[in-house]
Amino acid sequence: MASVGRVAEPGAVEGIDVRRPFPPLRNDLVLRAARGERLERSPVWIMRQAGRYLPEYRSGRAAHDFFTVVRTPALACEVTLQPIRRYPQLDASIIFSDILVVPQALGMEVQMVPGKGPVFPEPLVTPDDLARLAVDVDVDEALAYVMDAITLTRHALDGAVPLYGFAGAPWTLMAYMIEGGGSKTLSKAKRWLYRYPDASHRLLQRITDLCVDFLVAQVKAGAQLLQVFDSWAGELSPAQYQQFALPYATQLAARVRAAVGSDVPLCYFPKGAASALPWLRSSAYDCLQVDWTVTPQDARVLAGPEKTLQGNADPCVLYADEPAIRAVTQTMLEGFGPASRYIANLGHGMYPDHDPEHLGYYLNAVHTLSTEMCRSAL
Ligand SMILES: Cc1c2[nH]c(c1CCC(=O)O)Cc1[nH]c(c(CCC(=O)O)c1C)Cc1[nH]c(c(CCC(=O)O)c1C)Cc1[nH]c(c(C)c1CCC(=O)O)C2
Fold it and tell me: What is the DSSP secondary structure assignment for residue 114, as one 8-state letter?
């Protein structure tokens, strides 16, 4: 098991000098997987690896509201490091933030209501409401706290693992801005697509423009990979996905790629929409994340040979005992082929009632089984 070495201790984050050059990276497995290089084992990280299932997160969060943590770089950094300190098996960190900081930068109020999730008190109702959104947003100013958290965290990690930055995909952000929170049917947001297609395209373009600037700024601040979350891609028909989600998700990647060059891998998660993978083959994304509703073998056929796949066990497998977790991991690794173009993850984020010990079983299973498989594949 790789040692994480000198990741900053709790409380030591405030003393970090962020003007120094970044420390050298000591574990580049996810970067090598994204580039399609041969691997000695599968790298692994987990969506929502920092979160309420961790007792250290709950005790820290008890003192602060969710968006206060997100907006305070030292707190966001501390929370990002918690899973890295606890699990030396993790091969990447992801900055503690939220996709909803982009609607906030556009001037919308978002509250995180305990037990309910995000709530927009004044969601967009008709195209007239687009006039309420801020114009010419300077992300370096409006979202400076995210970039500051990234720079601080990149130092505090001391090169132990690379740091992912992220953003919501335009369709998923549009859906939240209209629904005003979670929804079973997304009927309000989808109503816009049918009733107001032109206004929908205008909104999607404005979100895309802001997300391009935001992702580029995250790279300048120190993010080493980027992930775009399209959590509600699976709610759209294929025709609507092709009209309203795909063009903006791919435009986002192309523009970010043109600005940051080819060293920073770009990842995209069209949740629930594995049928979209063939349309992403020609996109600028290097990695495509899949959930558990598609087999690894089908995901590979759909995505083609040139994309790195990320995923995909059902997070609920972590409720099982260690042998069952190991068995599911074995099937998953065999399906993807652990020696190249694969990054292990779950098919969605951790749940608050997951047992942290069971995540350890999953991470250990990925390490031991993928190491054995990569060795025997030589
Ligand atoms: C849809 C979405 C959101 N946020 C995000 C997505 C895309 C991924 C996905 O599909 O889950 C992305 C996100 N949100 C969070 C991260 C942090 C990084 C990480 O993955 O560790 C990331 C990458 C922290 C968070 N974001 C949130 C929490 C829990 C809130 C808390 O601590 O009180 C965390 C740790 C809140 C949040 N934020 C959002 C929702 C729906 C919720 C409520 C979830 C819940 O109640 O379990 C919007």
Answer: T
Does the active-site annotation cover 48?
yes
Q: Are 377 and 339 in contact (CB under 8 A)?
A: yes
Residue nearest to atom 31 of ligand 1 (CA): 66
Is the overall model pTM greater than 0.95, yes or no?
Answer: yes
Domain assignments of the chain as residue spans, ordered by start: 95-289
Note the pLDDT tens digit of each residue in 50-78: 999 999 999 988 889 999 999 999 999 99
The SS3 call for residue 287 is strand
374, 375, 377, 378 alpha-carbon torsion, rounded to 10°:
120
Query: 28, 53, 86, 98: which is the annotated catalytic residue?
Result: 98
The CATH fold assigned to 95-289 is TIM Barrel (3.20.20)
286 is catalytic: no
Look at the chain and count its residues. Answer: 378
pLDDT digits (tens, 9 = 90+) for 155-206: 999 999 999 999 999 999 999 999 999 899 999 999 999 999 999 999 999 9
Contacts 24+ apart (CB under 8 A), 133-138: 133/106, 133/107, 133/108, 133/206, 134/105, 134/106, 134/107, 137/105, 137/106, 137/210
